[in-house]
Amino acid sequence: MHDIIRSLLDTDLYKFTMWQTMLHRHPATQAEYTFVCRNRPALPLAQLLPEVNEQLDRLCALSFTKDELAYLGSLRFIKSDFVDFLRIFRFQREFIAASADGEALRIVAQGPQVHVMAFEVFVLAIVHELYCRRFDAAQALRTGRERLAAKIEALRGFTAEPPCRHPFRFFDFGTRRRHSAAWQREVLQTLQREASPWFSGTSNVMLAKELGLVPIGTMAHEYLQTYQATGVRLRDFQQAALEDWVQEYRGDLGIALTDVVGMDAFLADFDLYFAKLFDGLRHDSGDPVAWGEKALAHYARLRIDAHTKRLVFSDALDFERAFALYRHFGDRTQPSFGIGTYLTNDVGLAPLNIVMKLTRANGQPVAKLSDSPGKTLCDDETFLAYLQQVFDVAR
């Protein structure tokens, strides 16, 4: 069986940007990440356990190459001391354990956050590719190519319409739930060749490097959630996280994620200072139109020109949803669309809805109060209720 992960760059950019910030701001944080499958797989994931453990062994044998470190160092927001840290970094096998829980697969990464936080995307890509190998690969490839061609035709038809004030731009967010590494590469090469006016880049750092694409990403939920357990007053954790981000990147990577405790609670903390400093916001749960309208109303209240800001939509998107959102917002702000599974795993087999989320930090539970039913994640009901009370959020 060949290695599914062959490079430590084969992950999302925001893993590096969050990693650097945690190394500089909270290097002693201890963390626990837990694998969850949200839908019912076509076969028990516990069957994958021997292969998962073998792939984890191989992942923990990898290190960054000189060429990879040079690429990371060429990104202006990556600092030299972080590159030096990565030069000696290697995953520790003792920090991650996979086991069977009945028919389910249980994977937990636990240890210093700066040593375990990068497991996430690799674990998800490994599990999903092993799962997809259980099915007809040739048929999946035929279906995937047919559907990709149809997507590009739909894109050409849509972009033939009169454009809105701001251009339509989309990018790949599909590493974590891809059908395979090879298929993600083929998809990106096809889009690069046939959809280049609208295709803006990828979250996958390795493919950005190798294909000459723009690497895209800023922060994920785990970044803000960590601040629920770093010693700041719980009510202040969002502002503390945003402030550390501002100080770390000084104007780079200016898209803030809004749904760790819901959009309303986020906007209550996203005052004029942050609204001016950040380039825009990213949507990842709840009604995207309602979310976008709240964002635009917030900018209007602060007397900020929304045409100077970007709204990034990234929740379960396909092109039809992206087109509708562009028509709705494209004349009022700069919309962009991060599209994941629909690009990298639309091959006729129902994809897994898998995540590996931060569940504890410094021995304390952390939580995400999602704007979408089923996305709230916390293993401690008492803390969840407390978080809801502090931010006056109904569940």
Automatic annotation (TrEMBL):
It comes from Caldimonas thermodepolymerans. GO terms for molecular function: glycosyltransferase activity; nicotinate phosphoribosyltransferase activity. It is an enzyme of class 6 (ligase). Its EC number is 6.3.4.21. GO terms for cellular component: cytosol. It catalyses: 5-phospho-alpha-D-ribose 1-diphosphate + nicotinate + ATP + H2O = nicotinate beta-D-ribonucleotide + ADP + phosphate + diphosphate. Keywords: Glycosyltransferase, Ligase, Phosphoprotein, Pyridine nucleotide biosynthesis, Transferase. GO terms for biological process: NAD+ biosynthetic process via the salvage pathway. Belongs to the NAPRTase family. The modification Phosphohistidine is found at H221. Transiently phosphorylated on a His residue during the reaction cycle. Phosphorylation strongly increases the affinity for substrates and increases the rate of nicotinate D-ribonucleotide production. Dephosphorylation regenerates the low-affinity form of the enzyme, leading to product release. This is Nicotinate phosphoribosyltransferase. Catalyzes the synthesis of beta-nicotinate D-ribonucleotide from nicotinate and 5-phospho-D-ribose 1-phosphate at the expense of ATP. Transmembrane segments: none annotated. It comes from the Bacteria. Pathway: Cofactor biosynthesis; NAD(+) biosynthesis; nicotinate D-ribonucleotide from nicotinate: step 1/1. The keyword Phosphoprotein applies. SUPFAM superfamilies: Nicotinate/Quinolinate PRTase C-terminal domain-like (SSF51690), Nicotinate/Quinolinate PRTase N-terminal domain-like (SSF54675).
